[in-house]
């Protein structure tokens, strides 16, 4: 067994061996590269930017909705509003969240008066979630504010360009048929 060097790595280890001059480290394609891989790198970069902007927009919307509602609870509420009545299990599956996280967010939303929990009509053992009138009214206001934010991103676009963009986003968000 080799003895450690001053930095703690064993002498004679792979870390001591210099890289041969003719070997370059692998790298991912960049948006500046030619061809499909460069194009894919551009797409990935732009989606990353879009995700950062979306996260910032959601955080701001959650704060405008109610300063005491964190972004994760806001996401949960939006899901409930779109898919009501739904169960906490539905949210766990759809949003890839941990059961305990969903439980905490639902409890917070209940305490704030934004979500009601009622027994399922078909099976009283199952609890379903629905939004309250208070949540619906606040969300309507926030949606108007969000649309204003998004309008600033597409200022000057024609209706045809907006329709085409919406179509491309829908196509992107719909996985290809694996047949």
Q: What would your notes on this structure say?
A:
The chain has 179 residues and is mainly α. The protein has helices at residues 35-65, 71-83, 88-95, 99-111, 133-153, 159-173, and strands at residues 115-119, 127-131. The chain has a two-stranded antiparallel sheet with strand order 1-2. Strand 1 and strand 2 form a beta hairpin. Helix 1 packs across helix 5. It is extended, with a radius of gyration of 25 Å. It starts with 34 loop residues before the first helix and ends in a 6-residue tail after the last helix. The model has no long low-confidence stretch (mean pLDDT 87).
Element-level helix/strand string: HHHHEEHH
Oligomeric composition of the shown chains:
single chain
| N-C termini distance | 54 Å
Shape: extended
Category from helices, strands and their pairing: mainly alpha
- What strand line-up does the widest sheet have? 1-2
If you compute it from the alpha carbons, what radius of gyration comes out, rounded to the nearest whole angstrom? 25 Å
The main sheet comes to: 2 strands, antiparallel
DSSP strand count: 2
Uncertain residue segments: none
Q: What's the average pLDDT?
A: 87
Count, helices: 6
Question: What structural keywords apply?
Answer:
about 180 residues, mainly alpha, two-stranded antiparallel sheet, extended
Secondary structure topology:
Layout: H1 35-65, H2 71-83, H3 88-95, H4 99-111, E1 115-119, E2 127-131, H5 133-153, H6 159-173
Antiparallel strand pairs: 1-2
Helix pairs in contact: 1-2, 1-5, 2-4, 3-4
Please sum up the structure shown:
With 179 residues, the chain is mostly helical. It has helices at residues 35-65, 71-83, 88-95, 99-111, 133-153, 159-173, and strands at residues 115-119, 127-131.
């Amino acid at each position: 067994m080799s003895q450690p060097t001053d930095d703690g790595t064993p002498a004679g280890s792979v870390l001591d061996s210099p890289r041969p001059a003719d070997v370059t480290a692998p790298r991912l394609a960049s948006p500046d590269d030619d061809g499909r891989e460069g194009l894919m790198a551009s797409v990935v970069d732009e989606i990353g930017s879009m995700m950062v902007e979306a996260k910032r927009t959601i955080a701001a919307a959650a704060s405008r909705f109610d300063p005491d509602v964190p972004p994760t609870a806001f996401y949960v509420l939006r899901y409930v509003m779109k898919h009501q009545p739904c169960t906490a299990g539905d949210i766990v599956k759809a949003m890839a969240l941990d059961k305990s996280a969903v439980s905490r967010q639902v409890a917070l939303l209940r305490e704030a008066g934004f979500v009601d929990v009622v027994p399922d009509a078909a099976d009283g053992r199952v609890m379903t979630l629905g939004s309250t009138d208070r949540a619906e009214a606040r969300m309507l206001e926030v949606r108007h504010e969000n649309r204003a934010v998004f309008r600033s991103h597409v200022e000057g676009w024609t209706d045809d360009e907006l329709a085409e963009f919406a179509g491309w986003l829908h196509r992107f968000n719909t996985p290809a048929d694996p047949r």
